[in-house]
Amino acid sequence: MGNLLDMKKNAVILQKPSGTIAVRVDITAEQRRLYNGLLWVARETIKKNKDERHYSINLAELKKLLNKSEQDKNNDYYKDKMKELMQKIAEYNILSKDKRMSGAFVLVSHIRFEEDKETKETVVKFEIPEFVRERLVNPQDSLYANINLVVIRGLTSKYAIILYELVRDYQRSEIPVMEM
Question: Which of 6, 45, 108, 142 is deepest in the core (most CB within 10 A)?
Fold first, then answer.
């Protein structure tokens, strides 16, 4: 798996399924960045083993993705933000880009935190819904956008992140009429 700590100037590209971009869900900018980071970890793991359904990342690397430097010794803040993703239900494909599907899913289906015995660092272990996993396994079978996580790391508003993802999603398509 690539290393999020090496993201300074490099692009870290997530092939994000379109159905998970145009979603109706109330999450913060930090939670959207966290969710994208978790999807990236899952996609990188799936590239190595298409049958894998459990994913993990060192919490320090995930925090680096958020560009956070403050100290949170117990990581309680980040743990709470990730646990909240398990309670968020997203209605997907709300712009009807992919005519074959619509519905809803929980953002993260399972999450736990373990201490690495050697490094004493917190490791995030998680699962994603099968609907999302299937699209990460075979991105060529569904519509997706190349989302640069380095760009998202610099955006401070959840609306800026949503707009960036939508623009990337419709980069090679007709822009739909959207109401404010």
Answer: 108
Residues of the chain with pLDDT under 50: 1, 5
- Rounded to two decimals, the pTM is 0.86
Predicted pLDDT at 55:
97
Contact predicate 82/111, CB 8 Å: yes
Q: Find the farthest-apart pair of alpha carbons in the chain and give their distance in angstroms, rounded.
A: 53
Beta bridge partners of 124: 57, 113
- Over residues 89-113, the pLDDT tens digits come to 999 878 777 776 778 999 999 999 9
pLDDT score of 130: 92
Residue 62 pLDDT: 86
User: Measuring CA to CA, how many Å separate 59 from each of 42, 65, 91, 128, 175?
Assistant: 14, 10, 28, 17, 37
> Please, where are the H alpha helices in 7-75?
29-48, 59-65
CB 56 within 8 A of CB 123: yes
Q: Which residues contact 114 (CB under 8 A, 6 or more apart)?
A: 122, 123, 125
What's phi and psi for 136, nearest 5 deg? -75, -30
Q: State CA 180 to chain mean position distance.
A: 25
Three-state SS at 45 = helix
